[in-house]
Predict the 3D structure of the following.
Amino acid sequence: MKAIAIDGPAGAGKSTISRRVAEALGFIYVDTGALYRTVGLKALRSGVAAAESPALRQMLRATQVDIVYRDGEQRVLLDGADVSDEIRTPEASRMASAVSALPMVRAYLLDMQRNLAKTHDVVMDGRDIGTVVLPQATVKIFLTASAEERAARRFAQMREAGTNITYETVLHDMKERDYNDSHRTVAPMTPAKDALIADTTGITLEESVEKILELVRERL
Ligand code: DC
């Protein structure tokens, strides 16, 4: 099986680029952030704090997270119900970042991610795919862009989706999340030693897709 690992901070264009690269190669696209978001949503709904605790262990034991593909689109199921839209709110994003720092949660989601890559050719995006989940990935890319540009892209998407939020809030949330994701002790966001670094600041997503596809094709 072949695996392409695409890591990097929120808003660098990971999901759009990964989806397009997967389409071009005929691989499945796995958005691992959606898994942390789903666990975060469950914690929010259950009133369980983002801390290693017996309550969290209990919650995880009673939680079923699944990935399914509908019309080629990844959907996530929480205890059998499709929560792909609910996991995108600002609260769910914050909770996802908080629970993703917990070893218990990372261990809970690890096998699921590895099993997908055992049975399919994948383009998998996240924060620790090249470093922890799939250290043997065929190609590793670390995608990045300035925080301001990433916030501006996210802000535009949210406005389009009808979310009432200011650019300053988006930028603030993004910097906070970057900090949490790269400073946690378990599997912090950092480029793998053998990752290709791609900075998408100032270039369109269209151009980024082309650039990444070229890099990937060279190495496959
Ligand atoms: O990519 P995203 O914004 O949907 O990710 C949501 C959160 O999950 C993000 O704050 C970091 C965390 N995450 C992680 O720790 N490891 C991954 N492989 C993917 C996401």
About this structure: Residues 10, 32-33, 36-37, 96-97, 100, 126-129, 177, 181 surround 2'-deoxycytidine-5'-monophosphate (CB under 6 Å). The mean pLDDT is 95.
